[in-house]
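ok so for the tutorial part 2 we go from a plain amino acid sequence to predicted structure tokens. step 1 is just haveing the sequence, like this:
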Amino acid sequence: MTVSATDNKPALIRISRAGKFYGAHKVIDGMNLDIFPSEKVALIGPSGSGKSTLLRLLMTLEKLDEGEIEIDGVSMWTESMAGRKVPAGPAHLKAIRSHIGMVFQSFNLFPHMTALKNITLAPVTVLGMGKEEARQRAVELLGEVGLGHKQNAYPGQLSGGEKQRVAIARALALRPRILLFDEITSALDPETVGEVLEVLRRLAQRQDITMLLVTHQMHFAREVADRVVFMEHGKIIEDAAPGQIFGSPKQERTREFLKSVLQY
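step 2 — the prediction. this is what the tokens look like for a chain of 264 residues:
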């Protein structure tokens, strides 16, 4: 089931009958999901439910085995050539990926580069941005995530929360329309989780970015998400506004899951 308060707008992300296998195991099973411009959608569910795989499919880090994914009406995995559909080539995938940024649980910063250089690298190499413009953009973004004083620090000199904030700034440097967050607080010390969630709260107020967040932070999901999608075994079990999901979920399996994680 898919719901949205913006049904009058075309979907920015359209996932149709999507399937993904790892060997004989189907990790995404016939999924249909529309995400609309500027929506903030939280993906919740038990480990192994396919949440992270879904983000990796959207980032083209994994290839879809069945179905279709469209970004702003353009097929991700096929393109037209001489009047017929063919598998998407590298240039097509790069163009699709240019709209999307992803922040990982494990930071993925280059250890031999300063925070500033970690952020400037992709705009220069991917967008062809001038080095000075990229540097100015990186300085601004570090300020936005509260790390203006850490420009010249290397990842090894940063706390986990600081590394994750640099990773968020790096994703923003490419000016994506869509941002994907894959359990980005799960590897952090409890004392540093709050500083990262505060950055996400500010991002959630922006109307120029669509966000999908895989998270185990249920209270945070309730606070910032427009919709919450509960997944299990590669399927969407329930998709609704946070008030319904956390207040009166319709599906028994949703109720069981929330009872176990919220202990009520």
